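Q: Got a minute? One more chain.
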Amino acid sequence: MLLDSLTQNKIPPKLIRLIKLTLENTRAKVKVNNAYTEEFRVESGVKPGDPLSPTSFSLVIDAVLKRNLIRGVTSPHDSDNLRPTQMTY
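A: Always. Here it is, folded:
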């Protein structure tokens, strides 16, 4: 979803490839009771503390909201579809 959002927002392909490289083959450990677990592979998401995380979130949530707004929002009070004109988050 993130890479699709980058493409839809016309991010240059070279930058998309660089971002993709930061997401691939990520490994992590967790500290529990002052000891680290065995290293494991991170299968999805961005790294905690990644400076791109807020921007990545904004791009993806924007795509999700746009997709849902195109369909319309059904109101439980009437059968008409509501079409919000502005969203703030």
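A: The mean pLDDT is 79.
Q: Perfect, thanks.
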